[in-house]
Fold:
Amino acid sequence: MTKVLFVTSEFYPLIKTGGLADVSSSLPAALSHLGLDIIPVLPGYPAVMEGLQAPKQLKVFTPAETPYATTLYEACVAPSGQKIWVVDTPELFNRDGGPYVDSNKQDWPDNCLRFGHFCDIVSRLSLGQCGLSWVPDLVHGNDWQGGLVFAHLHHYANLHPQKKRPATLITIHNIAYQGLFSYAEFEALSLPHEWWASGGVEFHGHFSFLKAGINYADVITTVSPHYAQEILSPEQGYGFEGLLNHRKEHLIGILNGADYTQWNPKTDAYIPHQYGPTSLQQKNLNKVALQQSTGLASNKKLPLIGIVSRLAYQKGMDFLRTMIERFIEDDVQWVVLGSGDPHIEQELLALSRLHPEKCQVRIGYDENMAHHIEAAADIFFMPSRYEPCGLNQIYSLKYGTIPVATKTGGLVDTIINADDANLAAGTATGFLADNDHIDVLEMRLRQALLAFQNKSLWLKLRRTAMAQDFSWNNSARQYLSAYNQAQTLNQKKALEFSS
Ligand code: ADP
Ligand code: GLC
Structure:
């Protein structure tokens, strides 16, 4: 049975800031079903330590091994019962605030040390240096936070050609987040000086964790086929396009899946009225319930546009206020749940105070409300500037909530555009705007609202959307084949090193 260590900085339901948390719990569960022995490993933030049921202490690291008192715990996490490992280093991770930012939304000033240490511990675990009987055959890292693991493993293999290292794969969930630090921060980690090279961790004069992953992982994946193409271009590669083109042969786009045990309107415990494709009148009751609980005018005939999002430039949220204002005279309502840029938060709250019957805004993270919005809204609006995959549009489809989104990244791979041909063929599931210009998005939204008035067309769109299947089955198999590819490459490299 292949053993995989899955390195992540988020894990639903313990700690979540975005889709990475959902993927980090649902993908390992799907891979376990396919027969892999897979253990996610993550840092012990307070929410994680508090959420662990009956954690078992596996190892206490000694001062000679690391400057920070560290304990490795193992625990099983409900509801799936997935076994995870937690790197508990209180000095670096036990603090109020988010995984990456403090309570004022500023990056933790010692993020380089925090995740540098996490990668150091994970590398030791990966190389079987901690006296544990379980040693992975493959290490699967995610985003920059696990990036240095790949440099550690590569250099270990270089120094010890007779010893085995696990095969490696990095998944890029968002190439704009590169784990960039200074040379001084690189020096503070006491890493070998030869790592500081453009073929190593140096990126335009900075120290980049993500670059270590892209340079050294045997295989690179990203979270949709379309995004895998986009990041090869200067517009979307964020400086990594050259290196990615060089590594193109080992770059694979694998679409994220959805966990339909969590996101299914037939069984969703968070929503007041469960429903399916043949009981869509129940969906309307969810709308009425949300109108009442938020303070929107109660009217089940009005189209309701829902948004659940990080309030960030990536997501096009900086022009959301203007967009809503353009519709303020129309018979349409908006409900927005999100958190992020304080300026965007404030302007949306101000708008909501001016037009409470038309627009309700909730700032913060609220799992319950996220599900209720999916169930209650008629349209889900995702005007992303770029979107590596996006999970909310996938959830929306299952909830019969028609997405209106930009034609970018994973949105292209998951939404079948309501153009003439797809409408005629009855295959359309949503409305894609050709680009992220506010006028183009407004026009597409107006076309969706027009379609909403056509009852039979709207029902057809909803039922087609609800019939889409983005469960992990297919994508998890693609990860299996990427793992095989990584193992073959690793064996080849080992032969080259030793000869
Ligand atoms: P990203 O990871 O870029 O933020 P995704 O669409 O991949 O975007 O995933 C976002 C995930 O985070 C979804 O599960 C969504 O429901 C959830 N989410 C985002 N904002 C909130 C919020 N304010 N409250 C609850 N869930 C949220
Ligand atoms: C990132 C991306 C998002 C993707 C998620 C999970 O946060 O922004 O598009 O769905 O990761 O892979």
About this structure: The first strand starts at residue 3 and ends at 7. The mean pLDDT is 97. Residues 18-20, 23, 173-174, 223, 256, 387-391, 410 surround alpha-D-glucopyranose (ligand 2) (CB under 6 Å). Residues 1 and 36 are 6 Å apart (CA to CA).
